[in-house]
Amino acid sequence: MKAKIIITPKKAVLDPQGQTVERALAHMGYTGVGHVHVGKYLEIEVTGDKETVRRQLDEACHKFLSNPVIEDYKLEIVD
Amino acid sequence: MKAKIIITPKKAVLDPQGQTVERALAHMGYTGVGHVHVGKYLEIEVTGDKETVRRQLDEACHKFLSNPVIEDYKLEIVD
């Protein structure tokens, strides 16, 4: 099993990395490109009961993989 | 439309961030956790023809959003 976690800055939080990519794309001549958000991606190989794993990782995400004050996370577990 | 890009280090490349998260999870008492890979996640708001956008972003990924020597990327465009 694999857990896939996507951590993104909350919409209200400044995202300088995203703004930089946005400007860079515009500068390189790519049209039709709007806002860019840059986040982190974690892929974790896991074993055990799916629901237990989900609960544990959800706790880990909340406690130390993300900063819930400024970031949102999305946890998905795939077989 | 939104483009979602996931950039991960190639399997053969050292991933110190992933190793750190892996050790941290084990240290915090989470069991059943195997290898961890840490990558980047980009969400880009796009407009225009889907196929044109895909071609453009694929080129951008290859040219400067990722480093094809050490990284893989996955591009997905959703409505």
What can you tell me about this protein's structure?
The structure is a homodimer of 79-residue chains. Chain A is of the alpha+beta class. Chain A has one domain (2-78): Mth169, Chain: A, CATH 3.30.1280.10. Chain A is built from two helices and three strands, in the order βαβαβ. Chain A has helices spanning 16-27, 50-65; strands at residues 2-9, 33-46, 71-78. In chain A, strands 2-1-3 form a three-stranded antiparallel sheet. The N and C termini of chain A lie close together (4 Å). At the A-B interface, strand 1, helix 1, strand 2 and helix 2 of A face strand 1, helix 1, strand 2 and helix 2 of B. Strand 2 of chain A pairs antiparallel with strand 2 of chain B.
Layout of helices and strands:
The structure is a homodimer of 79-residue chains.
Chain A: E1 2-9, H1 16-27, E2 33-46, H2 50-65, E3 71-78
Antiparallel strand pairs in A: 1-2, 1-3
User: Helix count of chain A?
Assistant: 2
Q: Measured on Cα atoms, how large is the radius of gyration of chain A?
A: 16 Å
The top-level CATH class of chain A is Alpha Beta
Strand content of chain A: 35-45%
The geometry of chain A reads as elongated
Number of separate domains of chain A: 1
Task: Give the H and E element order of chain A.
Answer: EHEHE
Residues in helices of chain A, as a percent range: 25-40%
Oligomer: homodimer
Please give the number of β-strands of chain A: 3
On the 0-100 scale, what is the average pLDDT of chain A?
94
Strand order of the largest sheet of chain A: 2-1-3
- CATH homologous superfamily label of chain A: Phosphoribosylformylglycinamidine synthase subunit PurS
Q: How far apart, in Å, are the first and last alpha carbons of chain A?
A: 4 Å
CATH architecture of chain A: 2-Layer Sandwich
CATH fold node name of chain A: Mth169, Chain: A
Q: Structural class from helices and strands of chain A?
A: alpha+beta
